[in-house]
Amino acid sequence: MEYIPNILFAIVLIAGVGYFARNINKLIRNIKLGQEVDASDKKSERWTNVVRIALGQSKMVKRPVSGFLHVIVYVGFVIINIEVLEIIIDGIFGTHRIGIEILPLSVYGFLIGSFEVLAVLVLVTVVIFWLRRNVIKVKRFLSAEMKGWPKSDGNIILYFEVVLMCLFLVMNATDTPFQAMDSGNVISQFIAPWFNGFSVEALHTIERTAWWMHIVGILVFLNYLYYSKHLHILLAFPNVYYGSVEPKGKVNNLEAVTNEVKLMMDPDADPYAAPAESAADEVPAKFGASDVMDLSQVQLLNAYTCTECGRCTSACPANLTGKKLSPRKIMMDTRDRLVEVGKNIDANNGVFKDDGKQLLGDYILNEELWACTTCNACVEECPVSINPLSIILDMRRYLVMEQSAAPMELNNMMTNIENNGAPWPYNQMDRLNWANEE
Amino acid sequence: MSEQLKVPTMAEFMAEGKQPEILFWVGSAGSYDDRAKKITKAFVKVLHKANVDFAVLGTEESNTGDVAKRAGNEFLFQMQAVMNIEVLNAYEVKRIVTCDPHSFNCIKNEYPSLGGNYDVIHHTQYIQELIEAGRLTVEGETYKGKRITFHDPCYLGRANSVYDAPRNVLKNTNATLTEMKRHKGTALCCGAGGAQMFKDAEPGNKEINVLRTEDALATNPDIIATGCPYCNTMMTDGIKAKEKEGTVTVLDVAELIANS
Lengths: 438, 260
Known about the structure:
With 438 residues, chain A is mainly α. Chain A has two domains: 208 residues; 150 residues, Fumarate Reductase Iron-sulfur Protein, Chain B, domain 2. Chain B is an alpha/beta fold and 260 residues long. Chain B is built from eleven helices and eight strands. Chain B is globular, with a radius of gyration of 18 Å.
């Protein structure tokens, strides 16, 4: 009988971590629906980015208020989670505060003390975050795409954090031996008096309850991530690694097009030649993207990483002037569609069954795509190296090259370039006339 | 400017068996757009003043394909790129300078994988280089004491992280340089990029160029400086929309230096 809590704990832990792992596998499978990307270059620059941008939050603090607050929650989250390690060991082996036995008392006290201080800082910050979203109403949290689930999602995450931090502090405050030790209870010593009238047994029950709710809460939160924008706490790191290491202005040259152009420019090429053996069974290339499978794996990882902070949208010139385009919505739509495709695959024994829908048209409208000035403000803003612009451009490519669906004025402009090498209908032979004009 | 500008072509250099120091890539706007042509000529004036041995492709130059690429027409872009690269490589061009940040970005970043490898710089970078090398002296009388605010072109700034060159060059005018609230990395687009120059804007509640012009006007400038022919058009239109054409002028960095 005495091992029942240990066994129960192991079951809860395995179930919690196992279900999360199952979902992460799905997430990886979904990302792999995208086109492969070669990111084997510039490894050191990529790692530097991970350290500076993801670990170091260098882009978060470009907006000092939200950046500073975020750093508190981020540091708090990372450090307080060291405590989870102790909880897991205690849970499995039936020990109580194994840290006291392993570490010198002063070190243990210092650690728990820091966790307690951070827990309070996180609590205060989370309250400010909640106020920013619900009372102060910071503009970027009010956009059209933030209605319904995205809004609730943002608040649920904050409630989770409040509950977890409170449980941690209550757990410490009601731990009689820990309080008696008087080392590390920097905050909980002030909470302990709230429980003064309680018997030792009652205190123990509260402590155990808080302890269990804390670890179960963490596991629930872990599993919540998969369904939430909050995945960024894990995906920000790989996402920054795979983010662009090229100048922002550089847009990839489509290889499939290069091959065709070479064929057209090569005077020796025989357009009627039978395709080479290897090429015969290749799927004809589709130019650009109309659905998530046409996007790259990095773009799909981008979609899962987006935490909908809206810095991109708040810097987007099109959005600022009332156009439909919102870079954040581009990322949210991409993720929503990818999740939909993933569910479709789950429901059809691992094979995607055409559902008559696609990212273009059913989620993202032409009007949004054509409003983009390709100014890179969204890319510059993103604190975790997401690139909404690349998706916009890939979808424009589909519209233009597969559907000839560019706005008429752009078709005229492109016809001019084809005919006379300038976007306007001027004669190529007049190109140097400016030198002779007054 | 009554005197005719001497603008040698690569073909002429080739005929004499010589190579110029730099190829001046004029770009479509710089070749055909009335306002942009003035920038082109101002830059040529600067090149002459610094005794730079330069050449243009003239009628052998064609659109870079940049705007087609941004509109989504990768075919047209690559056709243009391959044709231009053929010409540039035939002339063994090493170094290219251009007044158009879109051409700058496109040739610098997108031509290499198609076989076009050149040292590409923006004219503000080149002017800075000429000043630093002592080849170009700017008297700095014309705009002394004027208030100038610089609008970062997206394809120069964010796209390629060139923020300092235009500002360093402008210091030589002895004008007071002011910064807009949104500048450098956070600069707002003028509204022309991504092929927007060639179409009407989608429905909204404001024109982007007007919003950007308001940014600029908030610094109470005499002159809005920029380094892109498209930005120039957009800001000039913005000034008209705000009915400030009597008090504020929009000038390219090349024009400001040519006049100083």
